[in-house]
Structures are given as structure tokens and as C-alpha cells.
Amino acid sequence: MKMVLWLLIAVGVAMVAYIRLAPSDPARWHVVPQGADRNLKGGVVRAVETGPDGLTRLHSIALATPRTTVLAGSVEEGMITYITRTKVFGFPDYTTAQQDRDTLRVYARLRFGRKDFGVNRDRVDGWLALTQP
């Protein structure tokens, strides 16, 4: 019985380590947001009129969000992908924002699992609300 318990603990530790340490390939996650506003099981797509400096404003807001870093891109390139990790287990969510003239397109999605319980929607909608003058 003790052996099974230790095995389960070891598997749990290995899973958490993988979630936190698995590399994030920019070729897979730094992709142009497509489509119109919609909620997904594991994410969200938004397109809002922000004027030409929406990405600049969003970038400052995103970087002020705890556990959020840049995976790829820049304001100068016109597209940025962020990784935001959950506090306890470090699950990564990827958010790509692209400035398309006066429209800011945002695509947020989870990496692990099938459902995010609205976490990406809430974060993106909160960020977008803060970009409004």
C-alpha cells in the first residue's frame, strides 16, 4: 500500500514538473488571431476597435498581470503572444494579440485540458476593458 502511495506522489510531482517546465514553441503558439468574437471551451477570440495604439496599451496591461510573460513578438512587430500561468500548478494559457489597423485582435487559449472555466475570457475581457480610454 505504501508503495502505491509513493508511486502516486511521484507521478503527481512529475506531472506538475512537466506542466511548469515543458517548452513553449513559438511556432505553435504565436499565431495570427482569426475570426470574430466568440467564446470557446478553452479560450476566447475578441476583435475590438481600439485605434492604432491598442496593442501598446494592452501590452502594458498584460505585463502588469501576475505570472504573465512574453513568449514571442513585440509591439513594433504588431503581434505579441503572452504566457499567463496559474498560481498553484503553473498551467500555461497563451494569449496572442495583434494590431490590425484600428482593430485589436486577441486569441487566448489553454494548453492543457479541455475547459478553462472562463478564465481566459475573464482575463481578456478585463484587459480589453482597461484599454478603453
From TrEMBL:
Highest taxon above the source species: Bacteria
InterPro entries: DUF1499 (IPR010865)
Pfam families: DUF1499
Protein name from the UniProt record: DUF1499 domain-containing protein
